[in-house]
Amino acid sequence: MTRPSTVANEALPQSGFRTLLYKELLRFWKVSAQTVTAPVLTAMLYLLIFSHVLQDRVQVYPGVQYTAFLIPGLIMMSVLQNAFANTSSSLIQSKITGNLVFVLLPPISYFEFFSAYVIASVVRGLCVGLGVFAVTLLFGMPPLREPVWIVVFAVMGSAFLGSMGLLAGIQADKFDHIAAFQNFFILPATFLSGVFYSIHSLPPFWQTVSHFNPFFYMIDGFRRGFFGQSDVSPWLSLLIVATCLGAIAGLILWMLKTGYKLRH
Fold it and tell me: What is this structure's pTM?
């Protein structure tokens, strides 16, 4: 017969996980005008400007207008950037204000710590993505040829960027470090991933360089779900994204387990 105290102790980590997840969800939702509405507005401005300038000048896939081609890229770009922003801003804010200790002291395992932050980043990324998708309906309903790929790459991409945000938050000591990570890595990798173009329109050298960018595979696989066409096989994209996600998750779990730059 299990003693009541043992049952209570076993229930604590689950309760702590749910509480931390609720805190992270509530943190971005209470300022949704900033965390959800503002990115949707930014994506709409990109769409208005680029579709107006390039609509009749660029054709990427046969039978696909440039505006339609651009929509999935903007949705995925918004998902990725906001998933990163959610975990990185939350963790660095907790470190600077000193309230991170209240998250580290409760009996929450490092895996639950990681999961709560990443799940919250996925939720924020998907909320922003759905908002951008809803706005793009004003420009016409894009095709949804293989919707399973849309869901798979949206979830895995936002989980990967949420993990990247945790990595940046652990490494950073102030907001400037987060801004540098975002400006010198996240933004260039996102903009050079095929959001606004197909890599087949690039010179051979830059096509080769693009294949070393994991963001390219996230966006290309996500776009596959809309048009049934992509620059590379979606299975290859899935393998590369899953490998990158597993690698960074393993690194962060090691950091959390050892307390790297958090407990010391």
Answer: 0.88
